[in-house]
Amino acid sequence: MRTPLTQQAILETVVRDATATPDHRIESVTWGVCLAAVRSNRTGLASLVSHIAPLVAPDKPAEGTGQSAHQVAKWLLDPATTNTDRASLAMATVNSLLPAPNIENDAPGQNLLLSLGKGKKVAVIGHFPFVGALREACAACWVLEKRPKPGDTDAKETPHILPQADLVAITGTTLLNGTLAEILNCCREDATVVLIGPTTPYAPSLFTCGIDILAGCDVVDPGQALAGIQAGKCFKGLTGTRQTAWTRPGFSAA
């Protein structure tokens, strides 16, 4: 039986991985409507909590540029940052420190989940643009949302739905809003679990938390990506990035 996780323990593993890399001064912080970007060792992204959760007032910290990336990454460990744009900035900093995995082939989230979920029971945490196609390919598909759209399932049903799912796709923003541990604790041990989206950190310790695939993004052209963020684009419309999927060593999809 899997040992129950806490959100704080998960964040500690992520920050530990990030601060095990050489420290860098933050060269720049870019705020958009949907995303934050931090440039230190490389360019890291994270979704803005205030964009995802309309009830959260935008609060984009003025700090960051010129500071130690290690110190800003550690903001994630302060419970007061949970579900704030400060958490988004801290996670973008984590992503600017962690190296991208050496993966040759791109792995867009839609293609990955369609391949893994075909004919299976799939639960998706977060309403991604491709859920319509996913519903057509899967034996069953639940989209769990705090603000459900037509056809979605209220997130309150998560403890009842996730034990039924063969594949669970979780938005990386659950690292920011305090809900990832609760979700992982509801997953079957034999389920395939994917953490997905631009917020997802390539933190190897997450593989010890019950996650099988880290489907994040690598910024390959910072100029294009930052220009898009400043223009208000969300990740779907952003250029200068590539989506990659890092699989847990030894993982094999059933």
Q: Describe it for me?
A:
With 254 residues, the protein is of the alpha/beta class. The protein is built from ten helices and ten strands. The protein folds into two domains: 7-97, Enolase-like, domain 1 (2-Layer Sandwich), CATH 3.30.390; 109-219 and 240-247, 3-Layer(aba) Sandwich (Rossmann fold), CATH 3.40.50. 30% of the residues lie in helices and 20% in strands. The strands form two sheets. It has a seven-stranded mixed β-sheet with strand order 6-5-4-7-8-9-10, with helices on both faces. A three-stranded antiparallel β-sheet has the order 1-2-3. Strand 4 (121-125), helix 6 and strand 5 (140-145) form a beta-alpha-beta unit. Helix 5 (109-117) packs parallel to helix 6 (131-137).
